[in-house]
Amino acid sequence: MTKSPLTLYLAAPRGFCAGVDRAIKIVEMALSKWGAPVYVRHEIVHNKYVVDALRDQGAVFVEELDECPDDRPVIFSAHGVPKAVPAAAAKREMIYVDATCPLVSKVHIEAERHHANGLQMVMIGHAGHPETVGTMGQLPEGEVILVETADDVASIAPRDPNKLAFITQTTLSVDDTADVVAALNARFPAIIGPHKEDICYATTNRQEAVKAMATKTKAMLVIGAPNSSNSKRLVEVGAKAGCSYAQLVQRAADIDWRALEGIDSIGITAGASAPEVLINEVIDAFKDRYDVTEEVIETAVENVEFKVPRVLRTPA
């Protein structure tokens, strides 16, 4: 049977970012240094395939520190944790390694600096997301006000409207966040923003690649987990940029082939916590069904690398 022709537009950059790469490496190096089991508070990154692979190597994933024994190392996920968590680990004399992405840590430092200068923080983020919980937990209760949308800005009641600063979750939609920032500036003209945008380079780059890809095709698949903020934002960005069919899939088995009937081109990208092996799995699934031509849509080149903590670079 003759296969129908199909152009696959492959976004570049896509998939793993430097923070995710570092976090996974931290778990692997901890297992190598201390042996199994090593405990990890929360999924190290939001991807089932990655988490399952590390679990197979001896990582034990828990949601809270009190689920960890005192005598085994614990790793804090790439999303960051409230200050109370490492404090509790230190009190229990536990070995702990912080895998918080350095770009998230930058936001934590920013929040503490503004707090030290007497400013109350407004955080643009998603309620309940581990990164938001971790960032808000850097400061005392009531010092961080959370807003999710531009509409939320009208209803907040800060202590002093002239003593405010804002920070953002690093994995948000660049365009949606710009709307919230505009609303904050309009209502609170004295509000102080970050020196450099909090949304991380990898989130921004992946969104720009999706926008470029959306001009070439009406269908797009984003490979990523349903609890991955940056992956879900890629779907939204694709839809907003003109893709009439933009869907999130975890693996090739999740592709809705019937919805793609009659298409002659499709865009493929992946969230920052999706490994290349899953991207290749999806590409191979298309090659099984279509006569595929691949075209790379490259909008940026990434060469960022973050060092792992010193404790892992020294012998046990």
UniProtKB/TrEMBL annotation:
Gene3D superfamilies attached to this UniProt entry: 3.40.50.11270, 4-hydroxy-3-methylbut-2-enyl diphosphate reductase, catalytic domain
GO molecular function: 4 iron, 4 sulfur cluster binding; 4-hydroxy-3-methylbut-2-enyl diphosphate reductase activity; metal ion binding
NCBIfam families, alphabetized: ispH_lytB, PRK01045.1-2, PRK01045.1-4
Keyword Repeat listed: no
EC number of the protein: 1.17.7.4
Protein's recorded name: 4-hydroxy-3-methylbut-2-enyl diphosphate reductase
Example GO BP: dimethylallyl diphosphate biosynthetic process
Ligand binding (dimethylallyl diphosphate): H46, H79, H129, S228, S229, N230, S273
Alphabetical keyword list: 4Fe-4S, Iron, Iron-sulfur, Isoprene biosynthesis, Metal-binding, Oxidoreductase
Catalytic activity: isopentenyl diphosphate + 2 oxidized [2Fe-2S]-[ferredoxin] + H2O = (2E)-4-hydroxy-3-methylbut-2-enyl diphosphate + 2 reduced [2Fe-2S]-[ferredoxin] + 2 H(+); dimethylallyl diphosphate + 2 oxidized [2Fe-2S]-[ferredoxin] + H2O = (2E)-4-hydroxy-3-methylbut-2-enyl diphosphate + 2 reduced [2Fe-2S]-[ferredoxin] + 2 H(+)
Cofactor comment: Binds 1 [4Fe-4S] cluster per subunit.
Pathway: Isoprenoid biosynthesis; dimethylallyl diphosphate biosynthesis; dimethylallyl diphosphate from (2E)-4-hydroxy-3-methylbutenyl diphosphate: step 1/1; Isoprenoid biosynthesis; isopentenyl diphosphate biosynthesis via DXP pathway; isopentenyl diphosphate from 1-deoxy-D-xylulose 5-phosphate: step 6/6
Top-level EC class: oxidoreductase
Active-site residues (renumbered): E131 (proton donor)
Required co-factors: [4Fe-4S] cluster
HAMAP family on file: IspH
Coiled-coil positions: none
UniProt: isopentenyl diphosphate binding residues: H46, H79, H129, S228, S229, N230, S273
Family classification: Belongs to the IspH family.
Binding residue positions for [4Fe-4S] cluster: C17, C101, C200
Function statement: Catalyzes the conversion of 1-hydroxy-2-methyl-2-(E)-butenyl 4-diphosphate (HMBPP) into a mixture of isopentenyl diphosphate (IPP) and dimethylallyl diphosphate (DMAPP). Acts in the terminal step of the DOXP/MEP pathway for isoprenoid precursor biosynthesis.
UniProt binding sites for (2E)-4-hydroxy-3-methylbut-2-enyl diphosphate: H46, H79, H129, T170, S228, S229, N230, S273
Gene giving rise to this polypeptide: ispH
